[in-house]
User: Fold this.
Amino acid sequence: MKSQQRRYRGMRATSVALPLFILLLSLPSWAVQTTGTATVLGTVMDPTGAVIPGARVELTDLATNQSRTQVTNANGQYIFVNVLPGTYKITASASGFRQALVSALKIEVAKAYTVDFTLEVGAVAEVVEVTPGAGVELQTVNATVGNVIRSDYLLRLPLIDRQANSLFQLQPMVSPLGYGFNASGAVAGARGDQATWMVDGIDVTQGKFPDTGDATSFPLPAESIEEFRAGVTNVDAFFGRSAGGQFVAVRKRGGNTLHGSAYWYHQNDNLNANTWTRNRLGQPDPELKDHRFGFTVGGPIRRDKTFFFFHYEGRRFPSQQDIVRIVPTETMRQGILRFRDGTGRIVEYPLATSTLCGPNNNSPCDPRGLGLNPVIKALFAFYPPGNDPSTGDGLNTIGFRAPASAAQRTEYAWLRLDHHFTANWRFEGSFGWHRNLADAPLQVDIGGLLRGNILGQAKSVRSDRQFPRNIVAALTGNIRPNLTNDLRFGFTRFYFWRQAIPPFPQVTGTNVALDLAATLLDEPVDVFVQRSRSQGDNQNLYQFSDNLTWIKGSHTLQFGATARIINHYHMREDKVVGGMSALIALLDAGTFFTVPAEWRPPTCGGAIQTNCLQPADISRWNRFYAALLGIIDNVSIMMTRDADFTPLPFGTPLMNKFRYQAWDFYASDVWRVRPSLTLSYGLNYQIQVPTKTLDGRIAVAVDATTKQLILPKAYLEAKRQAALRGAIFNPTIGYMPIRMLGREKTVDTDWNNIGPRVAIAWHPHFEGGLLGRLFGARKTVFRGGYSLTFDRLNLVQLVSIPMLAAGFGQTISVQGPKNARGEPFRIGVDGPAPLPRAERVTPPLIPAVPFSELFSFQADPKLRPGMMHSVNFTIQRELPGNTLLELGYVGRWGRNLPQSVNLNSVPYFMKDPVSGQTFAQAYDLLAAQLRAGVAAGAVTPQPWF
Assistant:
């Protein structure tokens, strides 16, 4: 189950959420950094430094020739919001002054540009061109930390997968992937699954498996992306989706000039050296040819009005990977087990005839004298000869190594249209399509069991398929010069299907799939759960956002709301461990079948050194013995039930439909207190409505006696109190359909996620003296800020985990079956495998003991989003050579973060009611003596034991 430690007492839930939503949704919106845009602001002054009210400032997009105009306020200030990334011309003019011009200012995503003008006295017709330096990129509006990666960087930096989001690790304070414990691309100390990716103003974060900071539901090829920026800490109030980094990307767009590109990236193995292992086995270097190709084209449909941009990319990657499987040696195929005795001599035990078993080496190893089971012999015919002695034990098993296909075929297409209705109103729309088909050599056929496959040639029989889609539609406009609206709709489909071959009877005449000795032997077609399970996800995210910017004097007021509705279908054929939706007979020993001492050689020790087993070999003997004789340990299947616990036919996978909603509301203000001082502050209110099951196929844990919901914190506290008294708290746990408890959602909604933001930026003007040399004249900005953010609930917690509880997906089994004579049941010899029976139960369902359910997972009904307090202080300094230097401190404090707990764990502080000694005390005293060298037989007895 999931539980969490709370260090924060939330505010009382209120009933204002719906009215607040209606109010904010009725407002249009803002976007300094909301929809992949930027901000341009500044002050217009005369040569004496006095501000010029009423000056006219015009911003022109050089790509589309679209212009916007602002008039400076009483403080000489102007501001443009919702500025698309690109190259712009800015002019400033006023009566009695020469016109000032910045001819080509490069605007990057999610940044604020300070462009101040000093107008010289003269005629308006006279133009003075101004060349801005790096100082225009000093971030004087907020305290967000992060860099922009432009399209030219994306194209020139090495990207093996050519995905722009792979470069997120270049941002400050991002831990690299693949190094150290839990190195998942965590951003500034946040958990790796808490990054959010916004593309063209729409959330495309991969919500099901966001294990790393670059996980997106839709691909982001480098050739499609204009640029992206990260806010690694202290982002604006608009960003309330998660507590990690906020990555904002914008895709390319068309302009008045027809432009495009074509490309081909190629990698092959012609000059690659073969591996040492393949050379040793005489195998050639497997095929590797990677072709990635595509083209882009963009331009006008109607000059100055309508524009398009199209990108296509394909990939053909016919690669292969080595697979290794453990197969029987030639002697094992004959029903002979081989082990080294105490002298190191290899002893052969033909199970049908050997009498070297029993404590005195005089008992038949197989009391029935049958030896190798005919069914197992038939199965062995589908195993190829081993070729890799570095794998297996070298006596009974050996490795089989061969190349298997890991080929990929990928298609990507994306089209964007932009249309300017007027100079103040603009529409953009885009559609993205992607397909990825990949062979997954995790499950292979090495025995030619499946039609068309050949014995001894590894054939990948599992495939991964992805079919995501992405739609964006937006209407942006200036209602008045000081009022800007941005309305957006987005649809993103995350479709991932992992198709495997479910376990099936490998031998004619059998009624179940055979699993030999679990992990000690593989099968001709993999049966192991992690290799043979199919899983599928179809997640459709509908997103609506509406934002408003209102410029009032020195204040830039911003309001907005975002609604995300996710419809999610999840299918799986497994419970991670312990069960699949296929009948599997485990031919093994150790759980429900135990090999008697009379059926194996004696254990080496003392005077017994010949024809014996080393202690470390006993378990392997038992397991191989059961496999060769075909003795069934258990026959199991994960059976599924309908919403009312009616059993479904064997083979039906776990399936469920969910709906998840998230609502974000924000209000903020950027107050330019003085030209050198800006204060920004705001609030974000987040509501995450946890998943609601549409099919009702979710079971929750209850006290089987009272039928009350199990709450982990209360359960563990009761267990703790009992342990301190020397008592045991162990109520019988049952499982009930969630609807029978009057619930629809797996987790209660937390209504208290209110996150304040505050930041200050000081952009001083020093001339002369020590401060002038250190900080310059408006060449430095000091920034500091604080934010409280909340975690995005992971859909693994909300979707996958609730489905793994007992009830709707229950492992049922026949354990340690016997034949008519009461002997361990042998497959085929004693008939078809006995099958478990699916029975309808009356809730609560109580799993049979022992071990009918190895694991049962559930989310804590009181699970709350984790929270993050973040502070930062940074200094940005413009340096010679068009260079910016930034130094700073970032602190992050996590509270209420979720963690996994085991309700069955035994308290280490369990007290002996007689002596009053706890287990921990007894253990420490015993361990101290052993560490001091006291012999095991001489340690002081402890009362607890």
Notes: The CA atoms of residues 155 and 223 lie 7 Å apart. Residues 148-251 form a domain with the Ferric Hydroxamate Uptake Protein; Chain A, domain 1 fold (CATH 2.170.130). The chain is about 10% helix and 40% strand. The longest strand covers residues 425-447.
